[in-house]
Amino acid sequence: MATLSLKDVRKSYGKTEVIHGVSIDVEDGEFVVIVGPSGCGKSTLLRMVAGLEAISSGVIEIGGTVVNDLEPRARDIAMVFQNYALYPHMTVADNMGYGLKIAGLPKAERAEKVRRAAEMLDLLPYLDRKPRALSGGQRQRVAMGRALVRDPAAFLFDEPLSNLDAKLRVQMRLQIKELQRTVGITSLYVTHDQVEAMTLADRLIVMNAGVAEQIDTPMAIYDRP
Ligand code: ADP
Ligand code: ADP
């Protein structure tokens, strides 16, 4: 059974259908990247999985549970956005631990999970800083850490690197690769950047005008004559 499963998912705004029956399975530990031009429906698709946008028809399952009618917070996922969405008045540690606090986890357990994630993401020296005292790359790592501590069934990434400069993007790609290797994060990752897609994907979904046109390994898609 796939960890994340979309079956014939559609979305219409008014009378206009923008997602035309997309079906995707993301297996346990698999890193699936959706790549396509601006406006093809990547963000809408991800937001439907997260529960931030209602689906018009089809079925979305997370960890074997149909989530169509579940609130975002009742879905076993964590989302990483391009604009970080950190709380400015909270420290790095409190930002990372906030979701666990809401979930009612005792303080000592939160602190341990936060410390472990911070170690993986090279954030230990910054735990007591506020987001404004961090670089863009560090902020994005905090956003990753906040998702990581929750240990969700699947991670959803919405163009997380697009606000970073070229050098930082490469660094973050390597860091995400390292997380794939060590933690085996099950992920659905959206980007318009083909290099990013090829570097990260176990499997690629090429999306165009609301349709998943190709689903295959990066090799099979880009090595075609
Ligand atoms: P991408 O993330 O690939 O750039 P989007 O998911 O943002 O694409 O958008 C997919 C399509 O849906 C676009 O044609 C966009 O104009 C349309 N769309 C997105 N949000 C809305 C909305 N709230 N109302 C109407 N159309 C929308
Ligand atoms: P509470 O509001 O319950 O008193 P805190 O605001 O003290 O909790 O802490 C919020 C979260 O941040 C908790 O998950 C806590 O464990 C974590 N935390 C705070 N400071 C650190 C730190 N220096 N190292 C690791 N974790 C920390």
UniProtKB/TrEMBL annotation:
Keywords: ATP-binding, Cell inner membrane, Cell membrane, Membrane, Nucleotide-binding, Sugar transport, Translocase, Transport. GO terms for molecular function: ABC-type transporter activity; ATP binding; ATP hydrolysis activity. Belongs to the ABC transporter superfamily. The keyword Membrane applies. The keyword ATP-binding applies. Residues 4-225 form the ABC transporter domain. GO terms for biological process: carbohydrate transport; glycerol-3-phosphate transmembrane transport; glycerophosphodiester transmembrane transport. The chain holds residues 1 to 225 of 361 of the full protein. One of its GO terms (cellular component) is ATP-binding cassette (ABC) transporter complex, substrate-binding subunit-containing. This is sn-glycerol 3-phosphate transport system ATP-binding protein.
